[in-house]
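Why should sequence recovery work at all? Because a backbone constrains its sequence more than one might expect. Tight turns favour small or flexible residues, buried strands favour hydrophobic ones, and helices have their own preferences. The token representation captures these environments compactly. In the example below, the structure is given first.
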């Protein structure tokens, strides 16, 4: 049969360069997130070499990425331009998160009332993987008090807030969340998984958790989960210097925390969270 003029040519492969560009974009986005998280978690600024070692990103790529982030305000440098830290633009994102979160908004007045009632430092925190992140804080008026900044991230296993939220999960879920090696924040921090499971079982049974000096030496902390989600993702706590902590005081604190957590849960549910 004679060839037909104008017959279709074999289809050309599509994608190719476009796929490469998409892959580069994803890689660049991942590196950007890694840089911002590394700088946010650190208590100090990092040099290019330190970030290169920490993130295992080629120096040339990392330097270009940092220049872009500095120019846009997400990262800032020292006067010599050799050390990098989180920039001012990041504050706006964090503030927007807190402004838009229903639980944070619902709990503000109740946490303030609880602080007035107990005159001790009150916290609201959320479980994020193996850590908890402070979302709100109401400081005690006492000269001797615990102070913690909003946005601070701490290992869940070393805090009362984290323990009560881990207790809402099965042992298998807890094992999947926590690292094999549990970090010690103080000499009193429980770093043995078997001992931690025992603590979580107690917290699960009684409905609240308590830690003594595991996060901060000389400080005791009680925590209660906020009901509403299953399993719970948020909890409130009361931090008390051990010098002021008696059995009678503990009973009052646990009762007040439980009541406040229930009220926050009811408020959130009523607003269809």
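From this structural description, the recovered sequence reads:
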């Amino acid at each position: 049969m004679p060839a037909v003029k104008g017959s279709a040519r074999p289809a050309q492969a599509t994608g190719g360069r476009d796929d490469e560009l998409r892959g580069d974009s994803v890689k660049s986005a991942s590196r950007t997130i890694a840089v911002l998280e590394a700088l946010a978690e650190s208590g100090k600024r990092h040099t290019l070499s330190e970030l290169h070692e920490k993130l295992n990103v080629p120096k040339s790529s990392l330097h270009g990425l940092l220049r872009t982030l500095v120019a846009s305000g997400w990262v800032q440098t020292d006067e010599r331009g050799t050390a990098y830290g989180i920039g001012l633009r990041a504050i706006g994102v964090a503030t927007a998160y807190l402004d838009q979160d229903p639980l944070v908004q619902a709990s503000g007045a109740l946490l303030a009332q609880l602080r007035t009632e107990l005159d001790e430092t009150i916290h609201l925190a959320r479980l994020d993987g193996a850590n908890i992140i402070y979302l709100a804080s109401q400081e005690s008026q006492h000269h001797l008090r615990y102070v913690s900044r909003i946005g601070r991230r701490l290992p869940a296993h070393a805090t009362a807030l984290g323990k009560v939220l881990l207790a809402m999960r099965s042992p298998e879920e807890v094992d999947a969340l926590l690292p094999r090696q549990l970090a010690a924040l103080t000499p009193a921090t429980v770093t043995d998984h078997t001992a931690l499971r025992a603590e979580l079982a107690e917290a699960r049974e009684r409905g609240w958790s308590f830690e003594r000096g595991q996060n901060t030496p000389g400080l005791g902390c009680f925590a209660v989960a906020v009901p509403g989600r299953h399993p719970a993702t948020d909890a409130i706590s009361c931090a008390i210097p051990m010098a002021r902590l008696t059995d009678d005081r503990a009973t009052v604190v646990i009762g007040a925390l439980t009541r406040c957590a229930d009220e926050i849960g009811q408020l959130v549910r009523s607003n269809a969270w």
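A few observations help interpret the result. The radius of gyration is 25 Å.
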